[in-house]
From TrEMBL:
This is UBA domain-containing protein. Residues 396-426 form a coiled coil. Residues 521-543 have a biased composition (Low complexity). Residues 366-406, 414-462, 479-511 form the UBA domain. It comes from the Eukaryota. One of its GO terms (biological process) is regulation of ubiquitin-dependent protein catabolic process. Residues 520-545 are annotated as: Disordered. It comes from Amphiprion ocellaris (Clown anemonefish). Keywords: Coiled coil, Membrane, Transmembrane, Transmembrane helix. The keyword Transport does not apply. Pfam families: UBA, Ubiquitin_5. The gene is NUB1. The chain crosses the membrane at residues 96-118.
Length: 589
């Protein structure tokens, strides 16, 4: 990381002085370094960076070589459409790779890129990531944002020691893909359930506000949000196990699903901001933060989202929750990651400013072990103790009261939720006893916001409309029968023409009164009583679906503030590392 800091500072100095290392006198006609001028630069910059001239000379030569290769790549791309990619390998230096034209078939080019990486760097199984998104062979690389001189991160898919055989590596990759597919399928099933069945046997998910009240969200957006939150929960579960590569794959899937949600919804919840923090945290855990240019933009989006959700000076959060201590851990991570990015970019001053904010927060959030022990001796869990002490700024008595109140609030919320679901099930049963299906009853109740009388009116209107349509269809069919056509052909012709008797008659005449198998289509199976095509449906409850649902439910935390329950152990390690990196600069200055 120190090397990247030095490189960034040198690039800034070169840019300020408008020095182009790839041109004379720093590079001669044979692309060799101009020794005298390069040495003069090293001698001049060394005291500015607090490094020895030889150290600066090595860094300048690396920048010069990459600049020369980049210049060659630009010329080659203009003349031949052959691209150059800069690969950032795991725990390795930057490498430049020449690619065939980007206009080649996406799948072939992707596989060729993987083969070239394997041959050049000995990495047999890799995952390629550009700006936080995994590249795939399903579409051309240029359509995925790959350009000349793009920086592509290379992640190892196999174990670091490479002790596993090819079959085991493939099994690992297969398991990763299967995990993503099973997670998606499980939460898709849950997102389709409408709560018309007993929740004890057929679980379903609802999205609520900070007080636990269900939010009325359009079905399409709700489905995307459930998938996004599901992938996020799975990713966080893997992060706790320090399986950062697998976690990153799931978190990026969550990011894709969040992109399908409306901006107004994302601005009202902090889930999206927390996801951005988690993604960048995985980057730094994989020691790959510097090779992904979207790290800064993700943190910027997170900060903007926190501002919208929590308000200026966290006033909205204070009004809703009564305190802001628990959410401060999110800002600690945000400032810490920002400090890291500033350092990598060579901006030591901003890195120190952010690190100072981090240390101030850390001193408030780090917990007294004796107070933790006292609270746990009262029967509170370690999570409750951490969250309680942070909410009450370390006050032991206030924390105990706060935790007890939170327990009561959660119990009251559970009771209200049980009563609400019990009332809903009773309403569905009442409507089903009147002859309507449970699915249609659930849809009508959703449309009527739980009002049984309104739901009954919706179902009745829909039933009458259905009967009216049936009478019209029957009359049209009788007209065709009266003209001498057979019933099966008449009904088929009416379906094909949308019930228009004149068009159906002409169709039958054109086909000599017979509708062929090619034209014949089965009757529509759409629910006639559905108040809206966007309303949810109850998914099947086959054993495989039940297994998938139970599997994904295990990854959902049973505590609504699990994402705030950080021990700060990892943060403490990164703070210490940042202080070490910056202390050298402080001493020299």
């Amino acid at each position: 990381m120190a090397e990247q800091n030095t490189e960034a500072k040198l690039k800034n100095l070169l840019k300020q002085e408008k020095i182009q290392l790839w041109n004379p006198p720093y590079t001669d006609d044979d692309n060799q370094p101009g020794q005298q001028h390069m040495q003069e630069l090293a001698n001049r910059y060394a005291p500015l960076l607090g490094l020895s001239a030889p150290e600066v000379g090595v860094a300048l030569e690396l920048i010069r070589v990459l600049a020369v290769k980049r210049g060659k790549g630009n010329k080659m791309f203009r003349e031949t459409n052959v691209a150059t990619l800069e690969l950032l390998l795991p725990r390795d230096s930057k490498k430049v790779l020449i690619l065939p034209p980007l206009t080649h078939c996406g799948l072939i080019l992707y596989l060729l890129l993987v083969v070239l990486i394997a041959e050049e760097f000995g990495l047999k199984h890799v995952k390629l990531i550009l700006n936080g998104k995994t590249l795939s062979g399903d579409q051309p690389l240029d359509q995925q944002g790959v350009k000349n001189h793009s920086k592509v991160m290379v992640l190892k898919v196999s174990d670091a020691e490479w002790k596993q055989q090819l079959m085991e590596d493939e099994e690992k990759k297969k398991n990763q893909n299967e995990s993503i597919q099973r997670t998606q399928k499980g939460f898709q099933i849950l997102s389709e359930r409408d709560g018309s069945e007993d929740p004890d046997t057929t679980p379903f998910l609802e999205i609520g506000d900070q007080k636990g009240n269900p939010l009325n969200i359009p079905h399409k957006e709700k489905k995307a949000l459930i998938l996004a939150m599901g992938f996020h929960e799975k990713g966080r579960s893997l992060m706790k196990k320090k399986q950062y590569e697998n976690a990153l794959c799931h978190l990026l899937q969550a990011d894709q699903q969040f992109s399908q949600c409306g901006s107004a919804l994302l601005a009202s919840v902090d889930n999206f901001a927390v996801l951005q923090l988690d993604i960048v945290w995985c980057y730094q855990a994989l020691e790959a933060l510097s090779c992904l240019e979207d790290g800064r933009s993700r943190l910027q989006r997170a900060e903007e989202c926190f501002l919208k959700c929590y308000g200026e000076q966290q006033q909205r959060l204070l009004r809703i929750k009564g305190n802001t201590g628990r959410e401060d851990v999110l800002f600690l991570r945000l400032y810490l990651l920002q400090s890291l990015i500033f350092y990598i970019e060579g901006d030591d001053r901003q890195a120190r400013i952010q690190l100072s904010r981090v240390e101030s927060l850390y001193s408030r959030l780090v917990l007294d072990s004796e107070k933790m022990a006292q609270l746990m001796s009262l029967g509170f869990t370690d999570r409750e103790a951490r969250l309680g002490l942070r909410a009450c700024q370390g006050d032991l008595q206030e924390a105990a009261i706060h935790i007890s109140n939170r327990r009561q609030e959660r119990e009251d919320l559970k009771q209200r939720e049980r009563q609400r679901r019990r009332t809903r099930m009773e309403a569905i049963s009442t409507l089903s006893e009147l002859g309507f299906s449970r699915r249609d009853a659930a849809r009508a109740l959703h449309h009527a916001h739980g009002d049984v009388d309104k739901a009954y009116g919706i179902l009745l209107d829909s039933s009458q409309a259905t009967q009216s349509r049936c009478l019209i269809q029957m009359f049209a069919s009788l007209q065709l029968l009266y003209l001498g056509f057979e019933r099966v052909s008449s009904e088929a012709a009416l379906r094909l023409t949308g019930g228009d008797v004149q068009s159906a008659t002409q169709l039958l005449l054109d086909n000599q009164g017979f509708i062929s198998a090619e034209l014949l289509s089965p009757p529509s199976t759409s629910s006639s009583s559905s108040p809206s095509s966007e309303e949810p449906s109850t998914s099947s409850t086959c054993p495989e679906d039940t297994e998938l649902v139970n599997e994904v439910l295990e990854d959902i935390s049973h505590h609504e503030e699990d994402y705030l329950d950080l021990t700060l152990e990892e943060e403490s390690e990164l703070i210490a590392a940042m202080k070490t990196y910056l202390s050298r600069e402080a001493t020299l200055s």
